[in-house]
Amino acid sequence: MVGDKRGGAGPLSERRLKGFLMPLLAGAALTTGCGTVASISSTSAPGGVAGCSGTTDLRQYEDTRLNQMAEACRRAAQDTRASNLQAAIANYNAGRIWKAQGQFDNGFERPELATAPVWTRASEALEAALANLPTPAPAGAGRGNELSDATWANAKLELSQVRAFMGDWEGALEHATDVYERSSDARQADALYQRARLHLQRYQQDPNPSYRERAFDDLSRLSVFQSDQNSATLRDAQRLVVELAKTLGDNALADRNLDRARSVFVAGREAARAISRGTGNGDNDFQVATFNLGLGKIEVLRAGLTGPDELGGCDARPLYPSALNAAVTEHLNSDLPEADRWAGCALLALGQLTPALRRFEDAAQSTEGSVNPNTQISLARALREASRNEASGVQRLHYRDQSLNAYSTALGLLPAQADAEKRAIVLVEAASVILEYARAAPNQDWRPEGCEARIAAAAANDPLARADSPPLACAVSMLTEAVELAPEAPDAYLQLAAVYGDMTPTTPDGARLRSVFNAAFANAREAVRRAGEDSSVRARANFHLSSIAETGIARGLREGRQANGDMVALSAVAVSSADEAARLAPELFTSQACLTRLSAYGRMTLSQRYLDRGRAHMTESARYCETDRNQPVSLLYEGMYHLAQTYYLSDTRQSKAQSDAWENALQSFRAGEAALDADLTGGFSTQDRQAMRDRLLTGQAIAYECAGFRNAAAEIRTRTTQSGDTYFFAHGFRECAARRVR
To answer: 567 or 725: which carries more pLDDT confidence?
Structure first.
């Protein structure tokens, strides 16, 4: 029984009260944000409450009529015959009507009213409604009075909106939270939904990322309450979850917060699937695929990869294959171009080159991929990798040409000025493909597709790039453009240095040789200068400068210039640059520092003048050359170091040390040969493997010859080619007697 606490009309039975109030409450449930405004249903009621009635749609009335309706409800609340519950409902409706004067459809359509008295009147009426009602017990604590609790929840949610319009965000959120904590079922869902909308409205005024995060979390939880209902609130919540999930998930990925990204993408995917079920069609298949793409990215990142970079390139860091397999088979199996690119990177890391290439081709052939330069670059890089690993010469050349075509397509999609740095990177990569094949087949009559104009321009504008080698002339043109587009980037200078270093005239021409060497050397120095603070770039640039200085020394040696000023200066550059490269990246360039020291100063020991300097550098070289790593290249250099030691031990009193050095050299070369035979990593191509074997065998032969075992040396030389002797000669190792200083 509900009694009349005002002493007016006397008690009303609960059944009678429901019959009188239910029509009034029927349209009062809050469905904010869905284009629906809670209605006031007409009803008959004793006393003044009968005057508080209205219509479903308040937007059809002018302000004057709305004021009249609200005043009628306010007077009804003051009717002495009304019970507390009746008065609360009347005040609730008065507050609703005043709120509707300044706001419809949960939007700020009339911002001029934001500070108007209408909000104060609405707030006072809703506060009065709540004052007439007991606060419900927390959710789950037992059932209270259904009508009273419903009115309390509706008034709270309306007041929450009013507080937001008045700028009191904390008060607005507090009222919505009260409803969430003290209601159940649909009203609890309404409270979550309203709280989420408040966070989003607040974000519009103050773009604090945490507001969107809170809104997303509230919206994601709505399915717990209305999973079996096709309500407008749930449908709109699902739509908002889908909209927010992509942005928030991508942000979490960028911050490497993979757990958060995963929970967001899963929620977005489930919301998209629910929308598809609700509409009965596949309208959200694209969204589902997008969220699966995000989940696939997470697995790739967890595997230790970074995925495609901003230019579509892939890395190959240590990884967990199971995570990559899951990414490819479970999440990256859609036809989205970006999914194909990520799957391609994962497959490359797994060593599955053919399926990786297929995914990159699928991405590039899609409508989106055909106009996306990043996708074309991904394909170009995959084709380049395929060409390096292909055993068939015909197929290898096919991949090379296809790679250059993809780079050319990417260049056509990159405006020269808008994407200058990116275009420069693509030009450098394409030029490097050309250089690789020009080196592999220097005498081949090959003109890369699309290079005719570049070759002609290079021949006309750069005397050094005349058409002795059309591919290299094309590469020079590409790299010159790259330097113009990105003058601060070192990579184009490095490639130019490499290209000029490979330019050899078709007829002996000492002046031209020196010119192209000077161009190579100058570009390598410029690369070092432009390297900046990036230690990996500085290491590479110094390595290339050292290598080019070595080339200059070797050419001088062929011309008979062993100890002139230029050779000494180049030796100093070769050694200091190699030392710097080894300091910055010892795992990559320590061996180069060893070889450079042996080559540069080993050549100078032909005269007593440089003997002491050579001995000093041999002592310093020990820390670069002595190694226990089981790698063929390192062991080759270690053997060369021990062999070079013998040239400084010519005194008969040092014969024991000299014999030990020959023995150490022999052991290092043999260990290198064994390491080469045991190598199963595929780190050597067939051609490189044969060249390395020739060098290691030649080193053994030289050690035997120097120690006096000529028959053993002759037997070994039956298994070598002239390339081994050429290599040792280029690095200063001649006949033993000719190398000793007496």
So the answer is: 725
What is the pLDDT, as a whole number, of residue 283?
Answer: 54
Query: What phi and psi, each to the nearest 5 degrees, are found at residue 73?
Result: -65, -40
pTM, two decimal places: 0.60
Residue 671 near residue 644, CB atoms below 8 Å: no
Res 450 pLDDT > 60: yes
The amino acid that residue 245 corresponds to is A
Evaluate whether 479 touches 494 at the Cβ level (below 8 Å): no
The residue-averaged pLDDT of 368-377 equals: 85
What's the CA angle centered on 740, arms 737 and 742, to 5 degrees?
Answer: 110
Confidence band of 198 (pLDDT split at 50, 70, 90): very high
Tokens in use for 56?
């479903």
- pLDDT, position 620: 66
- Contact call for residues 599 and 553 (beta carbons, < 8 A): yes
731 CB contacts (<8 Å, ≥6 apart)? 554, 595, 598, 599, 602, 640
Which DSSP string do the residues of 57-72 spell out, in sequence order? Answer: -GGGS-HHHHHHHHHH
Summarize the confidence of residues 240-251 as an average pLDDT: 91
Whole-number Å distance between alpha carbons of 617 and 601: 7
pLDDT at 737 over 50: no
Of the candidates 590, 591, 613, the residue with the CA atom closest to the CA atom of residue 602: 613
Q: Which residues contact 719 (CB under 8 A, 6 or more apart)?
A: 697
Q: Is the pLDDT of residue 698 over 90?
A: yes
Measured CA distances, 519 to 237, 335, 487 (Å):
65, 48, 16
Q: Is the pLDDT of residue 230 over 50?
A: yes
Find the length of the chain: 742
Q: Within 13 Å, how many C-alpha atoms sit on residue 434's CB side?
A: 35
Q: How far apart, in whole angstroms, are the C-alpha atoms of residue 706 and residue 718?
A: 18
Q: Label residue 693 exposed, middle or buried (CB < 10 Å: 0-12, 13-18, 19+).
A: buried
Provide the H-helix boundaries in 531-651: 535-558, 565-584, 586-602, 611-625, 632-645
